[in-house]
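ingest -> fold -> write
write: protein_1
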Amino acid sequence: MSKRWFMPLLAGLMVMAGCATQQQRAERREQVRKAVTEAVARRQLRIDITSMSTLRYGSPDFFLELRGDTLRSYLPYLGQAYQAPMPSPLQGLNFEAPILSMSEGRAKSDMSRLEIDVKTDEDSFVYTVEVWDTGKAYIRVRSQHRDPISFDGEVAVP
């Protein structure tokens, strides 16, 4: 009995499996896009940090959360402070504060940009948050008394 039929059958099964996987990935991408777009519109957004960029140091694991008119920042700060006294370096950018002002819009067809101004007892901050429909996010934090710092992250999608 000839085994020539086996290879074409195996190749056909692999192509069919690949198509199903592509369709599942496309469906998942659409679910993520929809969830991210809705989270930005509702101002209910959590970004889990995957890496950090400073002028001086490395990368930890923290988050930034937008809850309507409140910003919850649980981010490290590693960099130069220009005004003393500064809170403990262990405190970082850890606070929950009402948003003073916020602008939002679509900077690109697949990316929303939020600019959020907040003030704590220690400093004033401007958070620029770029959220792609894929769920990837980029956060840049500027303040009056510290070096800027930025973070990469992903939107926590249920």
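write: protein_2
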Amino acid sequence: MISTRHHWCRWHILKNAKDKLGPIYSKRKTFKRAFNTLVIDVICIAEFETEWARLITMYRLKKNKFLKRLYMHRKKWAKPCFMGTFCAGMTSTQRSESANHMLKRFIQRAAPMHLFVTKFNELQVDRGDQEGKEAHVTKMVRICLLQL
């Protein structure tokens, strides 16, 4: 019997965090860094649980509705909760939204063509670096799963 699971898009998780958490996310760089690391990099359940609790306590966010809901549904988005599940990939909408978001980080809307090309090349280098990091995370996942 084939079964499927719906996972939440990491891009949406981070975008919603920025929108729902407001100043604590946008003005507290230490929170943003810790939250992003939790969402993107943590691959072991014990580490995820420890870091989540530390983040909630440190920033006094126990009553935050967005974070309560996010934690309640962690099996839909937190890497450690679905490491053994095959994920076929993104939808075209997710790819488009993600690409638009990345481009906006590197290129101003009114940029001339020569600047667009330069900045687009920077984006490609950045994405290559990110792929290298993801390959490393994949290796670490294997090690983590072997320890279970």
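write: annotation protein_2
The CA atoms of residues 66 and 72 lie 10 Å apart.
The chain has a mean pLDDT of 83.
pipeline exit 0
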